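Appendix C reproduces, verbatim, an entry submitted by the partner laboratory led by Prof. M.T., so that reviewers can inspect both the input and the predicted structure.
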Amino acid sequence: MDAPAIALSVIVALLVVAGAFAIWAMIRTRALFRRVGSFPAAISVPDSNQWRSGVAIFGAEYLRWYKTGSISTKPVLAFSRNRLNVIDYHQRNEATGTVVVHFECNGQHWLWAMTNDSAAGVVSWMDGASPVEEPTGI
């Protein structure tokens, strides 16, 4: 084989591999959005202008966040229902109904941008936790 044919073969192989990764990332993101209890949410840390878009999914005891466009099947972050606290919130965009909620979990602070309905769902999920201890003295 001559050099141009080898170069073309390598380029085609790289395009096929890149295409496979892109298709996998799209299928994964679509599957995450189709799960019950999922909602779009962007995450940032306080005092940062860098937001990462993703999909959050309610679980029995954890709120898991997956980065969109990733090929990993594991969540990037997981927040325990019993350790997640709302610090503050503010309306980001009234026209789209976007709110930014400041959460604290295990001493780390996070900003989540989501819809008003999603924020209400997170608060309801947090309030719906089973009690840590059984009430006594009743």
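The beta strands are 38-44, 52-58, 62-67, 77-80, 84-93, 98-105, 108-115. Additional entries are available on request from the coordinating office.
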